Amino acid sequence: MAEAANAWLKALSPELRAKATYPLTSPERETWFFVPQDRKGVTFEEMTEPQRKLAHELLKSGLSQAGYAKATAIMALENVLIELRDSVALRNPLKYYVTVFGTPTPEGPWGWRVEGHHVSLNFTIVDDDHVEVTPSFFGSNPAEVLAGPRKGERVLAEEEDRGLALINSLDAGQRKTAIFATEGLKEIV
User: How is residue 104 annotated by DSSP?
Assistant: First the structure.
C-alpha cells in the first residue's frame, strides 16, 4: 500500500499533491460520507490517465480482486443514474476522491481513503501487520439496472440475497424485533 500510495503521490503535480494530503491527525480523517457531495482530496476527474491508473493501483492494494471489481462497478453505476435521472452535475463516475493521511511507509502509521457516492473506504496502516479498513461502505444505486445495456446487473446481488435470506429465515417473533420499518429508509440507520 505504501508503495502504491507513494507512486500515486509522486505522479501528482505539487498543487494536486497538496490537495491530496493531510496530516494523520487531521480532523478530515474522521469525516466520511457515502452520498454524492464534495469531499477533500483529489478526484479521478482531476487526474491525468496515468495518475488514474496509479490511483486504481492504490485501490487494488487495499481490496481483493472481487472487492476491487465491486468498487469499480459501483462507481460505473453513476452512468446509469445519469441516464435515469439526467443529473450529470450530481452523478459522475470520476467524482471519487483519493486522500492520503500522514506519510506512507510500511512501518506506519498513516492512512488513505477512496470515497464517493456509495463507496467509502478508509484504510489505517499501523504497521506492516496491522491494517484497519473502517469505516467502509459499499452501496448500490440502483440495486438492479432495469433497462439499457446493463439491464439485469446487480452489483451487490450476493449481499442483498443473503440479507433477504436472513430476514426470511426468521420466525414471526424474531421478525417483529428485527424489522423496525416497513418501508425502505432514505439513509443508513
Answer: -
Convert the pLDDT of each residue in 114-151 to its tens digit: 999 899 999 999 987 889 999 999 999 889 999 888 99
- C-alpha cell of residue 90: 450530481
| Confidence at residue 88, expressed as pLDDT on a 0 to 100 scale | 59
Q: CA 82 to CA 166: how far, in whole Å?
A: 33
- Rounded distance between C-alpha atoms, residue 71 and residue 59, angstroms: 9
Q: Which amino acid is at 149?
A: P
CA 90 to chain centroid? 16
- pLDDT attached to residue 89: 62
Q: Where are the alpha helices (DSSP H) in 65-169?
A: 65-85, 157-169
C-alpha span between 95 and 151 (Å, rounded): 23
Q: What is the DSSP letter of 30?
A: G
Instruction: Round to the nearest angstrom and report the end-to-end CA distance of the chain.
Output: 32
Alpha carbon distance 120, 71 (integer Å) = 9
Burial class of residue 162 (count of CB atoms within 10 Å of its CB; 0-12, 13-18, 19+):
exposed
> What span, in angstroms and rounded, lies between the C-alpha atoms of 95 and 100?
17
Cell representation of residue 77: 453505476
Low-confidence ranges of the chain (pLDDT < 70): 85-90, 188-189
C-alpha cell at 92: 459522475
